[in-house]
Write a structure and sequence with these properties.
A hairpin with a 2-residue loop joins β9 and β10. Helix content is about 30%, strand content about 30%. It is built from nine helices and eleven strands. The chain is of the alpha+beta class. The two termini are about 25 Å apart. The C terminus is likely disordered.
């Protein structure tokens, strides 16, 4: 029986997005504030996932050994470093979150049975890498606040209450929604970027956060005049809104996760299903923090 285990580690480091073959104006256009000299820093959180059969001692790998490998190969070298100058790989491809995850995989793969590297640059931005050449995913987390009522207009209040319970009350109720948007794509061999992060955040703001924030979804969003704004239907709608703009940025929408409350969330796996045929997976409970 295969089992997956996860080991957490962390390091603090600085980096700068700057290509010496470009002038200052072009670096500023491409990388914005991240191009400033001498750079900026993050408290990175790393999750190393391993998979294998259980040995006679009931372990996939001895965690003491795993801890030492991660320290020797990664954290002792990166902690309190300037990433651009630490590993030669970052001379060729800039140390973006997704590219750091890729290089960490390459450092650890000869020593551990890896299945995933997850690297948090901060709690609202992380990358996953699974050893697929330059393929990776990048996740942005954001939030919006909105009210809704769960009711089918053609049904009586009593029937809606039977289906939706308290959520069918006439004046609705609200949530602080947490939204995770995951984009898949190819890491650029020079910039280290899967997509332009600033452009991705702008797309999410333009198509979702600004239109949805502080609204009564049933009344302020035309789509939900006809569609009951359950968490699942909201997530499907968000996926439909984001798919084309993200493709124009050079990525593919991989997953939308909508966290309605600490007890309820759902996910849309966007590359396995399309538009209205998408299926939402409910999860209960959900963890809002990393």
């Amino acid at each position: 029986m295969k089992c997956t285990i996860n080991r957490r580690a962390q390091f603090s480091a600085s980096h700068r997005y700057w290509l010496p073959e470009l002038d200052a104006a072009e670096n500023q256009r491409l990388f914005g504030a991240c191009s400033r000299f001498p750079g900026h820093g993050h408290n990175y959180v790393l999750y190393v996932s391993l998979e294998g059969d259980l040995d006679q001692y009931g372990m996939v790998e001895n965690l003491s050994v795993v801890k030492q490998v991660i320290k020797q190969q990664v954290t002792s070298q990166l902690n309190y470093s300037h990433l651009n100058d630490t590993w030669s790989e970052f001379q060729q491809t800039l140390p973006t979150t997704e590219n750091i995850a890729r290089v960490i995989w390459d450092k650890l793969a000869p020593h551990l049975p890896l299945v995933n590297i997850k690297l948090f640059e901060h709690p609202e931005l992380w990358a996953d890498y699974q050893g697929n050449n330059m393929e990776a995913t990048l996740t942005v987390k954001t939030h919006f606040s909105a009210a809704h009522r769960l009711a089918i207009p053609s049904l009586s209040f009593e029937k809606n209450q039977e289906i939706y319970g308290k959520c069918a009350r006439p004046n609705g109720h609200g949530h602080n929604y947490h939204l995770e948007v995951t984009v898949a794509g190819t890491i650029d061999k020079r910039t280290g970027m899967l997509v332009d992060l600033g452009a991705l955040q702008n797309v999410i703001d333009e198509y979702v956060v600004e239109p949805f924030d502080h609204t009564f979804l049933n009344k302020d969003i035309a789509y939900f005049a006809e569609v009951v704004p359950t968490a699942e239907n909201i997530a499907v709608r968000i996926a439909d809104l984001l798919r084309s703009p993200i493709r124009e940025l050079g990525g593919e929408l991989d997953k939308v996760k909508l966290i309605e409350s600490p007890n309820n969330s759902c996910e849309i796996n966007c590359r396995s299903t399309q538009s209205a045929n998408q299926k939402a997976t409910l999860q209960e409970p959900a963890a809002i923090s990393q």
